[in-house]
Specification:
The protein is an alpha/beta fold. It contains 16 helices and 10 strands. The strands form 2 sheets. A 6-stranded parallel β-sheet has the order 7-6-5-8-9-10, with helices on both faces. Strands 3-2-1-4 form a 4-stranded parallel β-sheet. α7 (about 105-110) packs parallel to α15 (about 290-300).
């Protein structure tokens, strides 16, 4: 209020007020503030980005994708490329470089657009991605080459480039037209055979677990579980064999819980997402917090139960509901209530697991 009193027509102040109201769950007020900030300064990228987040979260994709173009985290990439950026014009006969954005999960979710870009006539598509995704992305239809960002593709080889998350905007994706033909990634057969030897007996229901994300992520304290022990109620469901897919933060929790519940720890030896895919492809179910592993399971067409925090969920999971338009039929969303307590969420998972076990067909002799 004090800032507005001093500068009532300052777009930045209105934008900050909008962001504050978003965090306070006052979405209507937040939208009013952000739109006023944009009216005062149509080029205010922060206001446009924050409103994009709100619109996408509620499935208002037409305006949401347009506003989402205000993001600037690919600016450094743009400076390195001499070819022009693609803005949706005719691709026929052209060579396109599609560049990574944000985290591993973002690339796994949005790489589904590569086949659609190929179908628009692109003669050659190169995907530039995180090194840990390179081997997995080779299974993607539509790509002609995959490079890790630790490599240096020659910019002169491309007619144009595009940041990956701009694809939904240029291809006109709406909530009812999300390209969700699953699976669109696959596991390498040789890697499947290698990891098969380390998996639990096939006669049990194999359940992969991930309970923590990258601690550097802005809302990691909301999305990650405090400890593997938070999932301890799952240990009481009979007929399950648990596989830890946890890598990085939280790995040490496995040893602390082994006395209560034996877990097969495969997170530590995984080298990259091709290894992860080979493991996940042989599981019956993945239970995870909001990390790249959720996107991997979905992209492989593997049943995945996603544990989500209250309110500050990522826009891609929507504001409510138990299903995902991005991973239909395979992903089930378990959301915290307003108390931000994981207890009821885990209790709901236990109930769902119990139902799954009782309806599971008996293994073949």
């Amino acid at each position: 209020a004090a800032a507005l009193a001093l500068e009532p027509e300052c777009s930045a102040v209105w934008s900050n007020l909008g962001a504050l109201n978003l965090n306070l769950q006052r979405e209507e007020t937040a939208e009013t503030c952000l739109r006023h900030a944009m009216a005062l300064d149509p080029s205010n990228a922060k206001a446009r980005f924050n409103l994009a987040y709100l619109q996408l979260r509620h499935g208002h994709f037409e305006e949401g994708w347009t506003l989402f173009e205000a993001r600037d985290w690919y600016a450094a990439m743009a400076q390195q490329l001499a070819c022009p950026r693609w803005h949706g014009e005719d691709l026929a006969g052209r060579s396109l470089l599609v560049t990574y954005e944000a985290g591993h999960g973002d690339v796994i979710q949005f790489c589904r657009y590569i086949p659609l870009l190929k179908a628009k006539g692109a003669a050659h598509i190169t995907l530039l991605c995180h090194p840990a995704l390179k081997a997995l992305m080779c299974s993607l239809d539509g790509q002609d080459a995959v490079c890790g960002f630790d490599e240096s593709p020659d910019p002169s080889h491309f007619d144009c480039w595009m940041p990956l998350l701009s694809a939904p905007h240029h291809l006109g994706t709406r909530a009812h037209t999300v390209p969700a033909q699953l699976p669109y990634l696959s596991a390498d057969s040789a890697l499947r055979e290698r990891w098969d030897k380390q998996l639990p007996n096939i006669s049990t229901l194999r359940v992969g677990l991930v309970w923590k994300g990258n601690p550097q992520f802005e809302n990691d304290s909301d999305r990650s579980l405090p400890h593997l022990q938070t999932l301890a109620p799952l240990w009481h469901v009979p007929g399950l064999a648990f596989v830890s897919l946890q890598k990085g933060a939280g790995q040490g929790d496995v040893a602390e819980c082994q006395a209560q519940q034996a877990l097969t720890d495969l997170g530590s030896p995984m080298r990259d997402f091709a290894d992860a895919a080979a493991i996940v492809a042989q599981l019956d179910l993945v239970i995870t917090v909001d990390t790249a592993m959720a996107h991997l399971a979905g992209a492989l067409g593997k049943p995945c139960w996603l544990l989500l925090p209250w309110y500050m969920t990522d826009w891609r999971w929507g504001a409510e509901g138990t299903q995902s338009v991005w991973y239909p039929q395979v992903m089930r969303l378990f959301r915290q209530g307003p108390d931000c307590d994981w207890g009821p969420v885990i209790a709901a998972v236990v109930l769902a697991l119990t139902e799954r076990i009782t309806t599971q067909p008996a293994p073949a002799p």
